[in-house]
Amino acid sequence: MIGHTTDGSNRSQTLAVLLATLVGLSMVVMAGGAVAQTTETATPTPTSNSDELADETVSVDNDTQEVYLKVTNTSGDTVDYVVYGIDEGITTEVNTGTISATAGNSTETTFAADTDSYDSYRFVVNQDPDDGDNESVESVEVGEIVTQSSDGGGAIFAGGGGGLLTPMNLLIAVLIFAGAYLLGVFDPVKRRISG
Asked: Do 123 and 61 share a structural domain?
């Protein structure tokens, strides 16, 4: 008598459950609402013997979460930076520090953006004139990190933009259910119901 093996059925069931889990997790992530996106303003700054190595400004708006300063290939010691918040032409110092990047590398530092108080941020990078050597920077880059939230606000039933039960998510769920049915995932349930 020839025995019947269920190895193929078990593999199909495992694959279908794994697929359903992955799609379910992706739907939860899509309903989360916020995605970080970085926009950059690249500004190469040539090596200079002056104390000021860069003076760059980045505009911010209500979508801006952070602003950043990125330097590439600093020579010698660290270089100094000063961050200013600008609102209607009034400049206020909001942060200072030092930053460096070894040869062939970049270093980035970020700052929370106060968009209620400032409409742009200015970054001034200087070498220390009192240490006896002239530091340089191959390039300085400033930019903003913004958040894009879904239009639906994360609601379960959202019309067009967001939410968990969008037409695309429902279509994916129906396709997964149909695939699981065809693979026989529900056969044990059908047998139990039919007695």
From this structure: yes
Domain-embedded: residue 4: no
pLDDT band at 75 (very low <50, low <70, confident <90, very high): confident
138 lies in a domain? yes
- What is the span of the domain harbouring residue 155? 12-33+151-188
Query: CB within 8 A of 54, min separation 6: which ones?
Result: 43, 45, 123, 124, 125, 137, 140
Domain count, the chain: 2
pLDDT in tens, 138-155: 889 999 998 765 554 455
Say if 194 falls within a structural domain: no
8 A C-beta contact, residue 51 and residue 129: yes
